[in-house]
Specification:
Blueprint lengths: L1 H29 L19 E5 L34 E9 L12 E5 L6 H8 L14 E2 L4 E2 L4 E5 L23 H16 L4 E7 L1 H12 L6 E5 L10 H15 L2 H6 L13 H13 L4 H5 L3 H4 L14 H9 L2 H12 L13 E7 L7 H9 L5 E5 L11 H4 L1 H8 L12 E2 L8 H4 L1 E2 L5 E6 L5 E9 L9 E5 L10 H9 L3 E5 L20 H16 L4 E6 L1 H12 L4 E7 L30 H8 L4 H6 L3 H8 L2 E3 L6 E3 L10 H12 L5 H19 L21 E6 L8 H4 L4 H15 L5 E5 L6 H4 L1 H14 L24 H9 L5 H4 L2
Parallel strand pairs: 3-6, 3-7, 4-5, 7-8, 8-9, 9-10, 15-16, 15-17, 17-18, 18-21, 21-22
Antiparallel strand pairs: 1-2, 2-6, 11-12, 13-14, 14-16, 19-20
Helix pairs in contact: 3-4, 5-7, 5-11, 7-10, 16-27
Protein name: Alpha/beta hydrolase
Pfam family, one: Abhydrolase_1
Keywords: Hydrolase
Length: about 850
């Protein structure tokens, strides 16, 4: 028995000894031995770093992005460090925050922050993590509890990059025999760290500054389904010959480092010498070359020479000369930085940018003298739906570090997780039934409808239907109010509502009396109401009853004019204006020659509250009769830019219409117009009268003869304004009424001149292949632009640049001669066109 026990004890001991010997290499790999250069850019933060070894990783091989399996452990045909007598490849990181895991235990809320050219995870931690000394240069912390990158919400991983500090690097001992690694190697090594060591199943955001921004692009290229969003800050997609400025700069730096006598003598084989005998002069020279163009020249010129000369290289410095370069020579190794430059010399992924699926926000300093802004613009154009933000800052390239705090609102908007909107209904329309209320019983809006009543200054009481939704948890959220266009209804703007809710806004969309679900409660009331009456009613409901003291107002077509007048009446209630193909940016004559004996006073405001008089004046135009006579086929043709040839009977394309694309909400509005024909007769009659009469309601506020017209007072509106039109806009300008013909020259140029002259330049965007209903033709793109403007004050894409247009000074400024001439030519009008 003793013999068996002894044998068992012996076997156990033998196994333990064997296990210990097996673990010794792993323990050694976990914390690397002392190298020629430090393991951390900031020694005080070295204790935060963790290390990971990747056996048999192939460096300097070929990558086929279409075949992920082929480069799982490095590029095809690459060299392993083990084959060169080194330990397996090492990488390093600092992780903070709160990991969130899926049902398989994989982390799904990781934010990756890549290292810059000369830095590591600790350097980025020092710059960006809340409470660190580097926050001062960055104008505050970026990462931390409650910060822009919130560690209560995200698991944040600061990464070292292959080739420097805590990652494997030439100064580990191989020097110039180290494999010529690439940016692909950098990313793939850290991908394995995230996947195999940390258990990251999905990257929410990959970002970084300078070379860290460059790596962000590579994350999106190599692992398009692993990364949800990338945010390159001051990165580059090419630093080879396609970017001559960058290539020149870094090759000049390389030449400076190689000018050191020690380098010339050893050709890079100097690790047998003490660190103080390395090519340190060359290192100082190289850093001086790099620093020469790091800041804007005007900024550099403003600094005292006694400060500047600390960054200037001298072979034999005196006093403070080269003072800032001495520390760099002590900290860095020439071979390490030469390899960094070689990586750049061979870097060009411009042809691969189309692979990126991740949501992309490119941030770049406009005055960057290393990595030019124009090249960032070109890169952003090659990535689907990428956004680009340019920063003006005298720090030039070095402004990448404070960049997140300089454009915090834009970044917050970019990384915001959409709030769930689970109670939204599919809009729908039943076939009209005259025995039912068409709007209340047969039309479904995307959200629950509420009702309120208010009186206008004429003492008429109006019932208003509205949707009021919010899915967030703030006590006083930002509010978006939507005012629909002529002939439309609040339910038609469901997609804009949804995006507003997802972005944390409270959204209120109202039906103007006589339209939509406001129609049934106002049947029998006189159609002779003005837009000013409706503004009074809406102000009472929104501000006094609901309690929305200030909001962003969105107006489409007639709703745009409504909002312009509302902002003039109640400036304290309007935070911003979003205007989609707005009426209100032109004027009309009060009297119009339509071929009758005398011109008709069709826009005379004296009968604004006299429906019979309006009907009498407008009857010769035949517009009411024509609208009542429209059939389903007529409506379908017109709504979708078609017309019936009166001679051949064939349906042909038309230059006028509503929808370029048959989207969900385009079909919804079409169906309401078709099915109301057979619906409740009172609601049908009311709808058609309002549709025609509101041409009058709009134009009486925009008369050329009126010295106090809304158009003449536009410059008084101080609220920031985003104005959007489709390039194929069919109704503006109102050529039959005023003779104006060109949207840009006759509408947008004078409007911009008026607003810029008052000091309130608007953002103007014109969308190609889009007509009057932008929110239905391109629902996603337009809704995103609307949200960007509301949340950040900026809009992506091609913005109209009218900065060279002479501005209008004062309310009495003379109109452009060309526009004035066209207005005079518009005295005779084609009423068929007017009936649009």
């Amino acid at each position: 028995m003793k013999s068996k026990a002894f044998k068992r004890k012996y076997v156990v001991r033998l196994l333990l000894v064997t296990l210990i010997f097996c673990l010794i290499p792993l323990l050694a790999y976990a914390r690397p031995a002392k190298e020629i250069t430090r393991l951390a850019g900031d020694p005080s933060l070295e204790s935060l770093k963790e290390y990971y070894r990747i056996p048999n990783f192939r460096l300097a091989g070929e990558y086929d992005p279409d075949d992920e399996k082929s480069f799982e452990f490095g590029g095809k045909g690459g060299v392993t460090l083990e084959s060169l007598g080194q330990e397996p490849l090492r990488t390093a990181y600092i992780a903070v925050g709160t990991p969130e895991k899926d049902e398989n235990g994989k982390i799904i809320n990781a934010v990756v922050i890549n290292s810059f050219y000369s830095g590591d995870s600790g350097n980025m931690y020092n710059f960006w993590y809340e409470g660190q000394p580097g926050n001062g240069f960055c104008q505050g912390g970026v990462v931390g509890p409650g910060k822009l990158i919130d560690t209560d919400k995200y698991y944040v991983i600061f990464l070292d990059a292959l080739g420097l500090w805590g990652a494997s690097k030439p100064s580990d001992g191989l020097g110039m025999k180290f494999p010529k690694y690439s940016y692909f190697d950098m990313i793939q090594a850290n991908y394995l760290l995230l996947r195999d060591k940390l258990g990251v199943g999905k990257i929410k955001l990959a970002t970084g500054v300078s070379m860290g921004g460059t790596q962000s692009y590579i994350w999106g290229i190599l692992h398009p389904d692993y990364v949800e969003a990338i945010m390159p800050i001051g990165g580059s997609t090419a630093t080879d010959s396609a970017n001559p400025v960058a290539m020149w700069l870094f090759q000049l730096m390389t030449a400076a480092m190689k000018s050191d006598p020690v380098w010339k003598e050893t050709q890079g084989d100097y690790y047998h010498l003490p660190k103080e005998q390395h090519p340190n002069k060359g290192m100082m020279f190289g850093w001086s070359v790099l620093g020469h163009t790091g800041f804007e020249f005007n900024f550099r010129s403003s600094q005292p020479w006694k400060d500047v000369q600390k960054d200037v290289f001298y072979w034999h410095p005196e006093g403070d000369q080269s003072a800032s370069l001495v520390g760099k020579a002590a900290d860095y190794d020439v071979c390490d930085l030469l390899y960094r430059n070689i990586v750049g010399d061979n870097h060009n992924v411009n042809d691969l940018l189309g692979r990126i699926k991740a949501k992309t926000l490119v941030i770049h300093v406009k005055s960057d003298q290393w990595l030019l802004y124009s090249l960032a613009e070109e890169a952003a154009k090659k990535i689907k739906d990428a956004q680009l933000i340019g920063i003006d800052n005298p720090l030039a390239h070095y402004a990448v570090f404070p960049a997140p705090n300089l454009v915090a609102d834009e970044i917050r908007n970019f990384i915001r997780e959409p709030l769930p909107v689970t109670h939204m209904k599919k809009p729908g329309v039943e076939k009209g039934d005259p025995a039912k209320s068409f709007w209340r019983d047969q039309v479904t809006y995307p959200f629950e409808v509420k009702y309120a009543s208010a009186r206008d200054s004429q003492f008429a009481e109006w019932e208003v239907a509205y949707m009021d939704e919010y899915v967030g948890n703030e006590s006083a959220p930002r509010t978006l109010v939507i005012i629909h266009g002529k002939g439309a209804c609040a339910g038609h703007y469901g997609y804009v509502m949804q995006k507003g809710l997802e972005n944390g806004l409270r959204v209120i969309a109202l039906d103007i009396p006589h339209y939509g679900k406001s129609s049934p409660g106002n049947v029998g009331k006189s159609p002779a109401r003005t837009l000013e009456d409706m503004r009074e009613v809406f102000y009472d409901i929104l501000v006094n009853q609901i309690g929305v003291k200030k909001a962003v107002y969105f107006g489409h077509s007639l709703g745009g004019l409504f909002c312009l007048g509302y902002a003039l009446n109640y400036p304290d209630a309007v935070e911003k204006l979003v205007l989609e193909a707005p009426a209100g940016l032109e004027e009309y004559p009060q009297n119009l020659d339509v071929g009758t004996d005398t011109p008709l006073p069709i826009f005379n405001p004296s009968y604004a509250h006299d429906y019979k008089k309006w009907e009498e004046v407008w009857e010769p135009l035949g517009m009411l009769k024509g609208e009542f006579a429209k059939t389903e086929a007529d409506i379908l043709n017109f709504y979708y830019f078609k017309k019936k040839n009166p001679k051949t009977g064939k349906v042909e394309s038309s230059k006028s219409g509503y929808f370029k694309k048959d989207t969900e909400y385009a079909r919804f509005l079409t169906d309401t117009r078709i099915h109301i024909i057979d619906g409740n007769p009172d609601e049908y009659k009311q709808h058609i009268i309002a549709f025609i009469r509101d041409v009058y309601s709009m134009c009486i506020e925009l008369r050329r003869e009126d010295p106090d017209s809304i158009y003449k007072r536009l410059g008084k509106i101080e609220a920031p304004m985003f104005v959007a039109f489709g390039a194929d806009e069919p109704f503006i300008p109102g050529t039959p009424l005023n003779g104006l013909e060109d949207l840009e020259k006759d509408i947008l140029h004078p409007f911009y001149a008026k607003m810029a002259g008052a000091g309130h330049s608007p953002i103007i965007k014109v969308y190609p292949d889009v007509a009057h209903f932008i929110h239905t033709d391109i629902p996603e793109e337009y809704a995103k632009d609307v949200m960007d403007f509301i949340l950040t004050g900026k809009v992506g894409g091609e913005i109209m640049d009218y900065s060279d247009i002479p501005v209008e000074s004062g309310a009495g400024a003379k109109k452009p001669e060309k526009a004035e001439k066209k207005e005079k030519s518009g005295k005779k009008a084609n009423i068929k066109i007017l009936s649009k």
